[in-house]
Each structure stands twice: as C-alpha cells, then as structure tokens.
TrEMBL record:
Modulates transcription in response to changes in cellular NADH/NAD(+) redox state. This is Redox-sensing transcriptional repressor Rex. It is found in: Cytoplasm. The gene is rex. It comes from Lysinibacillus odysseyi 34hs-1 = NBRC 100172. Keywords: Cytoplasm, DNA-binding, NAD, Repressor, Transcription, Transcription regulation. Transmembrane segments: none annotated. SMART domains: CoA_binding. HAMAP family: Rex (MF_01131). Residues 80-181 form the CoA-binding domain. InterPro entries: CoA-bd, NAD(P)-bd_dom_sf, Rex_bacilli-type, Rex_DNA-bd_C_dom, Tscrpt_rep_Rex, WH-like_DNA-bd_sf, WH_DNA-bd_sf. GO terms for cellular component: cytoplasm. Residues 17-56 bind DNA.
C-alpha cells in the first residue's frame, strides 16, 4: 500500500519534529536513544512514538532502542532534506511579512522564492530579499521561479479564487492560513492552519484545567 494513504496525517505532521529532536540528540553526542528518552524530550507519549515509527518498519531493536544516526538518515531521506523545495507566498500582510523575514532558512528544506500581493507593483518589488509581484503575474512568475507549493495568507474573499488558479497551474500543495475551507482537486495536497481555532482550543484547555 502506498505510504501516502497508510500513514495518518497526525503522524505525518510529527515527522519534522522527530527529525529536529534527533538532530539535537546527535549534536549532544548521543549514539542511541529509547522511545522514552525521545518522549521525555518531545513531551509525546512513547506509545505514540513507537506507533508512528512502526509505519516505516523496523527502525529500532528491542532492548537496544534506536540508533540516532540511522534515524537521522532515514528521516532526512523521508522528508527530502537534501533537496530544497521552492515555495510561493501569496498575500504579504502582517503574517506574510513574518514569513518573508523568517523564510525557513535554518534547518529546513523549504525556501520562499517568490511572493505575490495585490499592493505590489506589476513590475515587482523586493521585501526581505524576496521578489514580490502583483497577483496578475502569478502564473508567469510561479513557473519562472520554480515554485512547487504555495502558502496562502490572503483575505477570505480571494482565497478560493487564488486556489483555483493554483490548481490550474498544477501546484502540488497549499498551506492555507485563511479560515476558508478550500476546495482543491485530488491531485493537490492541502493543509489548513486556522490560528483562531487553535487559540480557541488552547483557551478551552486552559479554562477546563483550572476547574
């Protein structure tokens, strides 16, 4: 069975975290770790870690634990860490500007190579070293800069329109920061991050833990 359909999305979201913490262990000189040690560092139940790892076969040995360098190599290949992925940012408001300044530079295999904003001039401008164009040039510049994925931080009213344009261009995926539930073709991957929903969930947890 194709891993894409076998591995739950919750597990997929944890893979970059595993890779980050394994890098930390390697920098500390650790040769091997147990699921409990990884659990203590990540604050994730060890049974969850073992279940996540089981989707990829035998990554460790009973009574030995996990070889840190082996896991690093495995997750590096799984996450394609050796090959950078070009990303387009669509919408350069407050959140978009923060993305441009951060731009995933350290310990990430993604980079924002081009951005689009309705206030940008048609001929383009530069923000934090990234070229920013008017959305009228989306199709042209998305291809020219070799973008594969898009981060969507536009207004709710234009979110689906921009998504439809990306779909026609055969964009591979969208990281959606708008509150709109987007409709995408089966060939396109979509991940939604609704900050207001996450905040409300946090408030609920805080208030219910106080009782």
């Amino acid at each position: 069975m194709n891993k894409e359909y076998k591995i739950p999305q919750a597990t997929t979201k944890r893979l970059p975290l595993y890779y980050r913490f394994l890098q930390n262990f390697a920098q500390e000189g650790k040769k091997r770790i147990s699921s409990q040690e990884l659990s203590d560092a990540m604050k994730i139940d060890p049974a969850t870690i073992r279940r996540d790892f089981s989707y990829f076969g035998a990554l460790g040995k009973k009574g030995y634990g996990y070889d840190v360098q082996h896991l690093l190599s495995f997750f590096s290949q799984t996450l394609d860490q050796d090959e950078a992925t070009n990303v387009a940012l669509i919408g350069v408001g407050n959140l978009g500007n923060a993305f441009l300044k951060y731009n995933f530079q350290k310990n990430h295999n993604t980079r924002i190579v081009v951005a689009f904003d309705s206030k940008a001039p048609y001929e383009g401008t530069d923000i934090s070293g990234i070229p920013v164009f008017h959305p009228d040039r989306l199709e042209e510049m998305y291809e020219e800069y070799g973008a594969e994925l898009a981060i969507l931080t536009v207004s709710s009213r234009s979110a689906q329109t921009m998504t439809d344009r990306l779909a026609k261009m055969n964009a591979k995926g969208i990281l959606n920061f708008t509150p709109i539930r987007l409709t995408v073709p089966d060939s396109m991957k979509l991940m939604n991050i609704d900050l207001s929903v996450e905040l409300q969930a946090l408030i609920y947890l805080v208030r219910n833990s106080e009782s």
